[in-house]
Amino acid sequence: MGDAATQIRLKSKPRQRKVLVTGGGGFLGGSIIKLLAEKGEAIRSFSRNYYQELDVIGVEQIQGDLSDKQAVGNACAGIDTIFHVAAKPGVWGRYEDFYRTNVIGTKNIISACRMHKISKLIYTSSPSVIFNATDMENINETVPYPDRFHAYYPQTKALAEQKVIVAARRGLLTIILRPHLIWGPKDNHLVPRIIARSKKLFKVGSGNNLVDTTYIDNAAYAHILADEKLDQNPELSGNIYFISQGEPIALWEMINRILAAAGLEPVKRSIPKKAAWLIGAIFECVYKTLQINSEPPMTRFVANELSTAHWFDISAACKDLGYLPRISIETGLKRLEAELKHR
What we know:
By secondary structure, the chain is an alpha/beta fold. It has twelve helices and 15 strands. The chain has a single domain (about 15-340), classed as 3-Layer(aba) Sandwich (Rossmann fold).
């Protein structure tokens, strides 16, 4: 054994933190996982599908549905921190489908936090939860939810947000992030929609309405910061933060720049806001009456979104989280163009 003074005492290695990312195979979830992997975290992904690219970086994968309370509970076993990113997005569909994923799914995540004594939850929301169909310029986090929603996605995300806020009041450490219009390489939502509809797009309204956007790397970075700052300052728990480039841009200029990155012509045709809104209302009525599941060419929500200003004050995120966009719009567009050329 040897003399006690000469014995080598081995320090026990600290247990590696285990992090769960819901929707880890998605656009934002995958980007968050990439940053977590760079930090050396032990990562588990909970998604409906299997993703080979996650296996390559050593991510444990569990398949399941957020609305399945038992599956969610099993996925959360042994977890220290959750990034709840998964959601059902979109402007059309059945309320039940949005509610099941966005609200019931979030309730199940919160229940699993209690069951497994998980102390921290970073929740991904959306600025659309406060959109009231009017110009929203330099809006901060004190703006309330609207009295009426014109789409089920923002309605159910608002309900989910409220459940996270209540959980924070009951002791769960949480931060809610609202990144706006996330885009970039490997985007599977916004950019593909713009490209697919390039020949059918009309500028709605004046075309000068300013909006915020968020490059994917910046959105993911904000989540990492929220996780770190919540450890340093638990008093931030329950707070909501808008996340964006902090650089409002005319919506149709941004759309045209994305089209240019894809080698496509800019949008030149236009339609008055009221006409687009009326057309959207008619399409909604027809699609609901005939029970058509596909998304209509126009809805009232989309008409309002395309014709109004919506950009946000990110000073709270800058102050509390230390957030500043690391990738500019210009750099992001160059990266997007390079990626689109290889698709």
